[in-house]
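Now for my pick.
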Amino acid sequence: MIEELADGLGVVLRRDAVAVGYDDNALARLVRAGRIVRIRQGAYALTELWSRASAEDRHRMLSAAVLRQYDDNIVLSHVSALIEQGGPTWGLNLDDVHVTHLRGGGRRTAKIVHHEGGCRVGDVTRDGRGFWITAPGRTVLDTASSVPVEVGVCIADDFLHRGLTSLADLQFRYDNRADWPGDLHVRRVLQLCDGRSESVGESLSRQLFKRTNLPAPELQWEVFYPNGRLAGRTDFAWPRHRLLCEFDGRTKYLRYRRPGESIEEAVLREKRREDLLRELTGYLMIRLIWADLYVPEATAQRIRRLMAQAA
């Protein structure tokens, strides 16, 4: 059965199917029957798995097919490496697999973007399947060089926060790059990134504050009980202006939801935490949501009004 030829992600290569007796007509019949779906030239996926896969999972399936089809002279890189390393995909195009050639490259074929660029010792590593993949620090720089700065900052923040790389490592890699495209983007990303941000929403909020000339906030600001015990912390704080700020995203509630706790219960618990922090500090609190990020000037004006009110 065709299912027995699939790898762990549900990917089936044409060459493997042909090797056990299938021909192109048989594969076409399986596609029409809805058992497999063609994901690129010479590669299929089990329809049951493909149909319920997220965009990130579909990209991983496509990446697996490409890596198995090519020889050992390519490295999974850029967006594709980022997905394998658990990075944020906000603002990224997930349609094509990105590979860097250890020799040659630079062309574009169906569903694959081929890059060329020198890979030094430490730039690449083997993943759990035995394929080459760029090291996390290299992944950050590669991806940041080809996306808008605000997207690159979100990526760098995430990799720094999870301890996959360090600012010193990123700076060292950047200093040793020579005439690579997108270097101005990367330089700006390194100036703006901060691993204390815990989500894409926090990274974008921080960039909004800077673009609208708001004072730089304290990040992950801690609030204590009178006896010195930690009561909680906020995403942002302007102590001088007596204002606290949190970014509210669904990811936050999912990440910190306790076992057996519903989203509604998590929201109510968060509300009680907010009341406690305001009571202990006497500060005002503002909560930002995704919609606020798309109206930066209006959001900045709200924050300035609260700063003036709190003062």
Observations:
- The chain has a mean pLDDT of 91.
- The radius of gyration is 24 Å.
